[in-house]
Design brief:
Strand content: 5-15%
Number of strands: 16
Structural class: alpha+beta
Shape: flat
Helix content: 10-25%
């Protein structure tokens, strides 16, 4: 098997689909945006450019040639089932692989994660390579939209569940269409109020006195109840507000101005599509009733749910216990003829030509009474006639088709029979042979007794055969050079040619004489504190050490320095110790610029910022917080100001 190191260089082709134009009309509803985007689906290429380097274990490129490579994409790094697979015959030059993935099998569905596995000539490389953001440019937010024009593919979708759940608000009345009296219940907010200033009060309040005529005025008893109660509920024809959002404010909703390009109006009729929902939207998932149309590309419906549990005829019949030839009989015309309880005469052997009752036909033969065989003209006696019992066809025809008596056949019939015997002739008679005798007569050698999957050759020679594969113990070659290459033993590439100098190194130690300038090598261990010195001409020698530290190092003596402190230079430029410990120096690890500059740039501690640090600012920190709604209330309650 080839052992390879695979260096991956992934490059994607043009896979990021851009929207051709921005939506200029921000007030169009989502359905219009979807329709507009559907034409872009074909613009995103389902291909990936892929390059790599295929090498041997020594880092050199493999031999030039065409290799079969299988590319697979998995949704998990150790998953068993790929969601995409493609086989290509790839021409490799100097070990370089350059292919385009998806040419024969498009890369359609892309999960949230993907891992590439490569199999080359039966060898699967590992580990799988994770596909990173360049690969996922095909399913970026813009590309998702460009592929399918599907509103549901957009990121950060608004939560429309808080809005009215009807498919249109056209049947509802806007709050602006109500007069102020609908909200205040104030008599003074009614239109066409009677002018009571022209009336004089009498001793009681039951009647009003007109200055000219009472016919132009209305008695209080004739006024609607709301005129005196000031109650909103006393109005007639009240609108049904239960179909609206239960809150008195749209604070829990999202204005269309916050929905970017999908809505810009602040009215509710832009939040719910007026024509995007069908009658199926009113049904619950656990009680769906479909009365028309078609259902395709779904998981096979289980038998328990009224389906077959299969997506093809054969599996469906098997699941239902109706497999033809196993559970039920395949249709047959003869069986169908018998199904009514009577088999047609033409279906019975020898009765094909019988068209009426057999006895009646015999009785109708004009030969008179039949009381014996003689009456039928039969000369054979009953014993002789019994010899034809069991005969199923013409006796003469059967006799004519028999073998004429032959002495050799009689001899063969007399031979004893045993498993594995062969009948051969010795030149004068027939005899039975087996084992070695039979093989000798047949011209067969001992190899004839071996099985093709267990052959043992113990001598002779093998020539003119197909090269034996490495997996079968061969070299997969018919010449020395190719055999070495196949076995990874190519001289000068995989293995080193013999060399006397290398042989000298093979024991783990190279002779000094094999190294350049070996005459200057230190040739012995010397004694303690000796120094190897050179005279400037020829090999050096061991000599007593007379060197002492000078300059900056002159302050170092034989005593130990202070433990775990930093080493610095003093005012004279000599080596000294610092008051800073090594642990304190460790605190500056990772610092990339002046510490004081960074400290000066930081925000001073502030309790208000600390309050905001957890992601939620206390209400007390906000101006006018005393007017904030402080609890969720109950369903239908309204927050009212007392002024």
């Amino acid at each position: 098997m080839k052992k390879v190191i695979y260096i991956l260089i992934l490059m994607t082709a043009v896979v990021i689909g851009q929207k051709r134009q921005q939506l200029s009309n921000h007030s169009v509803h989502v359905g219009q945006i979807n329709n507009k985007s559907e034409t872009r689906d074909g613009n995103v290429p389902k291909h990936l450019s892929y390059q790599g380097l295929l090498t041997k274990t020594n880092g050199k490129g493999v031999q030039d040639g065409t290799y079969q490579i299988i590319f697979r994409l998995y949704p998990e790094i150790d998953g068993e089932t790929p969601f995409w697979e493609e086989t290509q015959d790839v021409a490799i030059d100097d070990g370089v692989i350059s292919v385009t993935l998806g040419e024969t099998v498009p890369i359609d569905a892309i999960p949230t994660e993907a891992y590439l596995e490569i199999e080359i000539e039966g060898t699967t490389l590992s580990p799988r390579q994770e596909m990173t953001s360049v690969f996922y440019a095909m399913v970026s937010d813009t590309a998702k939209y460009a592929q399918h024009a599907n509103y549901a593919d957009l990121d950060s979708l608004p939560d429309l569940s808080v809005y009215a759940n009807k498919d249109t608000l056209s049947n509802y009345s806007l709050s602006s269409s109500f007069d102020s009296v609908a909200y205040t219940g104030d008599y003074n907010d009614l239109n066409n109020l009677p002018d009571l200033n022209v009336l004089d009060q009498s001793d009681t309040l039951n009647y009003y006195v007109m200055t000219d005529s009472l016919s132009a005025y209305t008695l209080t008893s004739n006024l609607a109840l709301v005129s005196t109660s000031n109650l909103y509920t006393d109005l007639d024809s009240l609108p049904d507000l239960s179909v609206y959002a239960t809150n008195d404010t749209l604070g829990s909703y999202t204005l269309t101005s916050d929905l970017d390009e999908f809505a810009t109006l602040d009215t509710l009729d832009t939040y719910v599509l007026t024509d995007s929902l069908g009658t199926l939207a009113d049904q619950n998932a656990d009680n769906v009733n479909i009365t028309g149309g078609t259902i395709t590309d779904i998981t096979a419906i289980a038998i328990a749910d009224g389906g077959t549990g299969a997506s093809d005829n054969n599996s469906a019949r098997s699941n239902l216990g109706l497999e033809i030839g196993v559970d039920v009989q395949a249709y047959d015309a003869d069986l169908a003829d018998l199904a009514d309880g009577t088999l047609s005469a033409e279906k019975v052997e020898y009765l094909g030509n019988v068209t009426s009752d057999v006895q009646n036909q015999i009785d109708a033969i004009d030969i008179g009474a039949v009381n014996s065989l003689d009456d039928l003209g039969v000369t054979a006696d009953t014993t002789e006639l019994n010899y034809v019992e069991g005969v199923t066809s013409s006796i003469q025809f059967q006799l004519d088709s028999k073998q004429i008596a032959d002495a050799d056949l009689y001899d063969l019939a007399a031979l004893s029979q045993s498993d594995g015997d062969f009948i051969v002739s010795d030149g004068s008679s027939w005899t039975v042979e087996s084992g070695d005798d039979a093989r000798t007569s047949l011209g067969l050698g001992s190899i004839a007794t071996q099985e093709t999957d267990n052959v043992s050759i113990t001598g002779g020679s093998i020539t003119g055969i197909t090269d034996i594969a490495i997996a079968d113990g061969g070299t997969a070659a018919s010449d020395i050079t190719t055999a070495r290459s196949n076995l990874g033993l190519e001289i000068g590439v995989d293995v080193q040619a013999y060399d006397a100098d290398l042989a000298d190194l093979a024991d783990g130690e190279l002779s000094a004489s094999k190294v350049e300038n070996n005459e200057y090598f230190i040739s012995s261990a010397g004694t303690e504190n000796q120094v190897w010195t050179s005279d400037g001409d020829g090999a050096g020698v061991w000599d007593a050490s007379t060197a002492i530290l000078t300059g900056a190092g002159s302050t170092i003596d034989t005593e130990d320095l202070t433990a775990s402190v930093a080493m610095v230079t003093d005012s004279d430029g000599k080596v000294a110790v610092s008051a800073v410990t090594s642990a304190e120096l460790g605190f500056v690890a990772g610092v990339t610029s002046a510490i004081q500059t960074q400290i000066d740039a930081k925000q001073a501690a502030d309790s208000d910022l600390d309050d905001l640090a957890d992601g939620e600012l206390s209400a007390s920190k906000v101006e006018n917080n005393e007017y904030f709604i402080s609890s969720s209330g109950t369903n239908g309650e309204v927050w009212i100001s007392d002024g």
